[in-house]
Amino acid sequence: MFHRVLQDPIPPVDTDADTAATAEAARDIARGERRREMLAELAEISMRLARSLGELVDARVDHEKKSADAPSHSKDAAAAFDKMAQTARRTLTLEAKFAEGVKARREKRITDGAERRKERAAAHKTEVDEAIVGGLHDAWAADCSDDEYHDLCDRLLDDAQEYLGDADEMRGYLDRPVGETVAKLCAALGLDPEACEPDGDTWRVRRPPLDFELRIEEKARKYPPSPLWGGTDGEAVRVGLSPECPDSLDTPTQPHPGCFASCPSP
């Protein structure tokens, strides 16, 4: 009986902070935020100057009203106020535009991170599903005939895939060892429950033999070892005879190719 160890796929780890795209997005957001803050400060300065100029315009207008012969400087102050007010409006508009850009980039970073986590989770689920279906396939193929395998295998695996998504007992299977889920599926689908069993901290599943393993078994059946020969660890000695050559106590007896009796090694 042949077995193989079922490996559990490594679950995804949130490493967004280590990716180049995320780091660049974070720097871009920080840079945009600093510029927005500078524009906000500039807008405050512009507003203070505009207020001062507005007060100056009011003062000069009042002074000109009270004194008919006073020089007219209110128009110059009003022109300066208009320019400063226009600067404040443009600065506030630009600051709002930067704020929207920073917000959009921040939201995009969150969305991209969620999408990457979703993709990693989907890839992990695919790996787990493939490991489970592969283990179930081996457990099934190890004990069925070729005809039964070809007739039922695809349908069995399709049923198992559907069972993973629908059965209550399979909920949370992504957080459990693959072997545990394979054992549950074997029991649910009527397979040998011992086809998949724990082996210490790991799980192993019964599997069909490989072609070369079948050839080795066939060769062993076709050419069995002679009952007159025994020995261990690759040593072949004649049963009932000394394992040493008659003429040398240091040379072990080995079967010479083509000979039945033991003979000294050259």
Provide a quick synopsis of the model.
Helices cover 60% and strands 9% of the residues. By secondary structure, it is mostly helical.
- Shape assignment: rod-shaped
Give the biggest beta sheet: 3 strands, antiparallel
Estimated helix fraction = 55-70%
- Write down the overall mean pLDDT: 78
Q: Uncertain regions: pLDDT < 50 for 5+ in a row? A: 233-253, 255-266
Q: Give the end-to-end Cα distance, rounded to a whole number of Å.
A: 40 Å
Task: Find the structural class using helix and strand composition.
Answer: mainly alpha
SSE order, one letter for each helix or strand: EHHHHEEHEEEE
> What's the total number of strands?
7
Biggest sheet strand line-up: 1-3-2
- Oligomeric state: single chain
| Count of alpha and pi helical runs | 5
Computed Rg: 43 Å
How much of the sequence lies in strands comes to 5-15%
Describe the structure.
The structure is a single chain. The chain has a three-stranded antiparallel beta sheet with strand order 1-3-2, covered by helices on one side. It is rod-shaped and about 135 Å long. Helix content is 60%, strand content 9%. The protein is built from five helices and seven strands, in the order E-H-H-H-H-E-E-H-E-E-E-E. The chain is mostly helical and 266 residues long. Helix 1 runs antiparallel to helix 2, helix 2 (74-141) packs antiparallel against helix 3 and helix 2 packs across helix 4. The model is unreliable at 233-253 and 255-266 (pLDDT under 50).
